[in-house]
Design brief:
Layout lengths: L2 E9 L6 E4 L2 E4 L3 E10 L5 E10 L8 H7 L3 H5 L2 E2 H12 L4 E4 L4 H11 L10 E3 H8 L10 H7 L11 H12 L4 H6 L4 H9 L7 E10 L4 H4 L1 H4 L11 E2 L4 E2 L4 E8 L3 E10 L6 E9 L2 H32 L1
Parallel strand pairs: 1-7, 5-6, 7-8
Antiparallel strand pairs: 1-4, 2-3, 4-5, 9-14, 10-12, 11-12, 12-13, 13-14
């Protein structure tokens, strides 16, 4: 396995920046200004390193908070390798079969967005791992414990002999944590994106779920309620088409659900969980959930509040239109 543990530092603008990706408008999470990467073997031993400061072309002015956190200066940024050249060199160094590991899941989406914006293959890498997830399997988080890289380094008693918030140094700290884990076994057992999405959807042990399906590689966030192949569903008991409600409620940060009715078997919930793991595409997990008296009562309360908010908003917009006439 060609395993690369890596870390990025990226610059952001004082105003949001969007770009078009195959017709979809996407917010740029950040423009990479520093890459630190460590190639390791199965035992966590360092085989090679990569360290580069990049000169951005979109967010050219170093944002003051980024400067404070990283210690980088505008002069250092201006002297960096032009971002397109630097990313191409990183791709060559890592290799086409590279598999990436990072602390959390923030860096790969930024990498893929930047690859696309600089004319490189955003489908690379095809496989990456969250070492924070693997760490928690061996060392479950206790109340009050942080999960930042520095807090875990402190918790594990790892010597802090180099600074933090430098990309290569953070990658090296991540490698030191990885050495304390059953890394090879954990990578072999690491769940696919499909499995992770299903896991995030099916969270209620008391619920009964049907028709669990995933839809990867979508471009439109609202496909869960506008895409016919996603929101056209049938009753799990008789196969009749369900009448899907128009009011969608949020469940967590990236979950949505609505009531769906069968003329013979009553109400169900149509539920979705969304993920934009690569920073470019939406993946959806869908299920039909059997309602229970307590869950249907909760849904109806939340639906009534949502309808009241929508009515109030519509009345305010109508009043504003009249005021401008």
């Amino acid at each position: 396995m060609n395993l690369i543990v890596f870390d990025l530092e990226w610059n952001i603008g004082y105003q949001p920046k969007t770009f078009r990706y195959h017709g979809a408008e996407i917010t740029l999470r950040g423009e990479i200004i520093q890459i630190g990467a460590v190639r390791i073997d199965a035992g966590g031993d360092v085989l090679d390193t990569f360290d580069m400061t990049l000169k951005p072309r979109i967010f050219r002015k170093l944002q003051h908070h980024i400067a404070k956190v990283t210690g980088l200066t505008q002069v250092e940024l201006d002297m960096g390798v032009p971002i397109a050249d630097g990313l191409a060199e990183f791709v060559r160094w890592a290799g086409p079969d590279a598999q990436f590991a990072e602390w959390g899941l923030d860096d790969v989406p930024v990498l893929k967005q930047n690859l696309f914006l600089n004319g490189l293959d955003e489908n690379w890498p095809a496989r990456w791992y969250d070492l924070q997830r693997i760490f928690l399997q061996s060392y479950p988080r206790k109340e009050g414990e942080g999960m930042t890289l520095e807090s875990v380094v402190d918790r594990m008693g790892i010597e802090k002999d180099i600074p933090f918030h430098n990309a290569l140094d953070d990658a090296l700290y991540t490698v030191k944590i990885a050495r304390l884990l059953p890394l090879a076994d954990a990578l072999r057992a690491y769940p696919s994106e499909d499995a992770q999405l299903r896991e995030a959807l099916l969270t209620d042990p008391a619920a009964t779920y049907y028709d669990v399906t995933t839809f990867p590689g979508r471009l439109n966030h609202d496909d869960y309620k506008t895409g016919p192949e996603l929101c056209s569903v049938n009753c799990p008991l008789c196969g009749a088409a369900l009448r899907v409600g128009e009011i969608w409620l949020k469940r967590g940060n990236t979950g949505y659900y609505t009531q769906a009715d069968c003329p013979r078997h009553g109400s169900w919930f149509l539920r979705f969980k969304l993920s934009r793991r690569d920073g470019l595409h939406w993946s959806f997990a869908r299920c039909i959930e059997a309602t229970r008296p307590e869950t249907l009562e909760k849904y109806n309360r939340q639906k009534a509040r949502q309808e009241a908010r929508l009515k109030k908003r519509a009345e305010a917009m109508q009043a504003a239109d009249h005021a401008t006439e």
